[in-house]
UniProtKB/TrEMBL annotation:
Native source species: Desulfobulbus propionicus (strain ATCC 33891 / DSM 2032 / VKM B-1956 / 1pr3)
Any Pfam family matching the protein: MatE
Gene Ontology molecular functions: antiporter activity; xenobiotic transmembrane transporter activity
Name of the protein in its database record: Multidrug-efflux transporter
Major localization listed first in the record, in broad terms: membrane
């Protein structure tokens, strides 16, 4: 086969995985979109409360997601080796760790009032945010189990399972939001707090649906997945699981926590600015699902290829994936710039909020390019089970460069820029650029290392 045909073959393989993964991620993140729109229609204060509460919740949630992301490369490499027992052990171990981790993380969301007061959040917003966080905290242990099942399905190249579960959960979220926010069916109107309960109910729905689908799968490794007896060697695997998953969780926490800190700093500018920032950030989060889904597909492809010991194919997989990420980022950047007024109008009818949101959407468009490159480089590294060094690189980019620069530009008039949210978005863009460069360099190092280790004992490179 020619080089072009090999690249096209790999692109098709990645797209077959990316499509269902993208739909699954869009279905899940659309819950945040639904929460934002429906809370905004209730009141501007409730929208601000949900924005602040979600900014506090999401780093904890994505830490849990990252921790359980270890399931995907473990399952993908075991599936590549044809080791069904290792597939089952990885998923079952992930379920146990996800449940325990979720329970331990719940109290972090119960005692946030002093933190919000210290950060200068508006007093009218804090009580609603507290009720929202208490409600949504019950989704953490459920989410931990769901992420383990999702990682298992993705690692087995069955992303359609999490896609079906995601859309089922989205439907539950819409109905629950309508009933709980506005007080239907004889229930009291909970406003922003209703968004938290609706999200917890939807996570429970996704967990149940995913368990049903994966339990009925006939792929080797999914039999007796929900048996009560413990797996042999499972306890000895906990440390290895945490060594792989903990750096992923911390890296995602570092990435998302900077958005939380920025949102809390921006809260000092009032409810209208918070609402505009949340609109831009929420829409950017929806668009982010495209490169993130591709990065998960890359993790699966890289892990499966390593399990099959076809090391020479890795460079082509990585190059094809990063090229696809760049093309997608260019398209999303142009789309946001072109349709930013229409996007802002979807979220709010307030002219002042809409005007500022259009400006911030322009910044969100610019960071599509480095964001797509860094997240897909990270996906390649996860497939190689390389997680500790990327954690340090992310820490340097986000907390060493992005946050200090954003604080200086957004609050301290660095460069004579007027205080406001724009300076923080500039800091975010700079952090993403640095992260893309550092992680891209790490990918090149890992590919060379794997090729050297393989030596002459690799299989012929065939599609």
């Amino acid at each position: 086969m020619t080089t072009l045909s090999l690249i096209l073959h790999e692109a098709r393989a990645l797209l077959r995985l990316t499509g269902p993964l993208l739909l699954a991620q869009l279905a899940q993140t659309a819950m945040g979109f639904v929460d934002t729109v429906m809370a905004g229609r209730y009141s501007a204060v409730d929208l601000a409360a949900v924005a602040v509460g979600f900014s506090i919740f999401i780093p904890v949630y994505v830490f849990l997601l990252g921790l359980l992301s270890a399931v995907t490369p473990l399952v993908a490499q075991a599936h590549g080796r044809g080791d069904g027992k290792a597939v089952r052990r990885a998923i079952r171990l992930g379920m146990g760790i996800g449940l325990v981790a979720g329970l331990l993380l719940m109290p972090l969301l119960w005692w946030t009032d002093p933190f919000m007061m210290w950060m200068g959040v508006s007093p009218e917003v804090i009580p609603i945010t507290g009720r929202y966080l208490f409600a949504i905290s019950w989704g953490l242990p459920l989410g931990g189990i769901f992420f383990a099942l999702k990682g298992g399905g993705d690692g087995l190249a069955l992303p359609r399972l999490s896609m079906f579960a995601g859309f089922f959960g989205l439907g539950v979220n819409i109905v629950a939001n309508y009933v709980l926010i506005y007080g239907k069916l004889g229930l009291p109107a909970l406003g922003g707090a209703g968004c938290g309960w609706a999200t917890s109910f939807s996570i429970l729905a996704m967990l149940g649906f995913m368990a049903l689908l994966l339990g009925r799968s006939r792929i080797d490794g999914t039999a007796r997945l929900f048996a009560l007896h413990p797996d042999q060697a499972a306890t000895t695997s906990v440390a290895a699981f945490l060594r792989l998953g903990m750096p992923i969780g911390l890296a995602l926490f570092i990435e998302c926590s900077i958005f939380t800190i920025i949102a809390l700093f921006i809260a000092k500018f009032g409810a209208q600015v918070v609402a505009a920032h949340q609109i831009a950030l929420n829409f950017a989060s929806q668009v982010y699902m495209l490169p993130y889904s591709l990065s998960t597909a890359l993790t699966v492809r890289v892990g499966f290829t390593i399990g099959r010991k076809r090391i020479r194919r890795l460079r082509r997989i990585a190059g094809t994936g990063l090229g696809m990420a760049l093309i997608g980022a260019v398209l999303t950047c142009g789309g946001i710039l072109l349709f930013s007024p229409q996007i802002a109008a979807l979220y709010t009818a307030d002219p002042a909020v809409r005007q500022l949101a259009v400006v911030l959407l322009g910044y969100a468009a610019l960071f599509q390019l480095p964001d797509a490159m860094q997240v897909n480089a990270g996906g390649i590294l996860r497939g190689c089970k390389d997680t500790r060094v990327p954690l340090l690189l992310m820490l340097c980019a986000y907390w060493g460069i992005g946050l200090p620069l954003g604080y200086g530009l957004g609050l301290e008039r660095l460069g004579n820029l007027e205080p406001g949210p724009q300076g923080f978005w500039v800091g975010l863009i700079c952090a993403l650029v640095v992260a893309a460069l550092l992680l891209g360099g790490r990918v090149r190092i890992m590919l060379r290392r794997l090729e050297r280790q393989a030596g002459q004992g690799v299989r012929a490179d065939r599609p």
